Amino acid sequence: MSGIEIITDGGRRRRWFAADKLRIVEETMYDGERISAVARRNGSAPNLLYRWRKLMLEGGSVAVAADDSVTENKTVRDMEARILELERQLGRKTMEVEILKEALDKSRAKKTTLLAQSLKRDDLP
Question: Is residue 83 in some structural domain?
Fold first, then answer.
């Protein structure tokens, strides 16, 4: 009989906890073992370990836990600057609206006063 082992996974994806991902990635980085050996021992694919390792190097444990790429600091700073600029513009427009409302109210009051004065003059002989 040959030493062939057949592994079936049932067709479902395995869910990894963040702590397990970190532990496995640390094994590949510090123990000096080959990634394929660590993957085989932990029951995962080598390409998955390469991906986790890349994410860990780029964004630390947060990226590995979220299984997502990390946004660069420059991108975050650009977005924050854009938000500040938009808030400044919104404040300016809000102030313009308030000034225009006051001007409109004053012009209506003047118009009513002038109309009342002109009616009084028309009543005089």
Answer: no
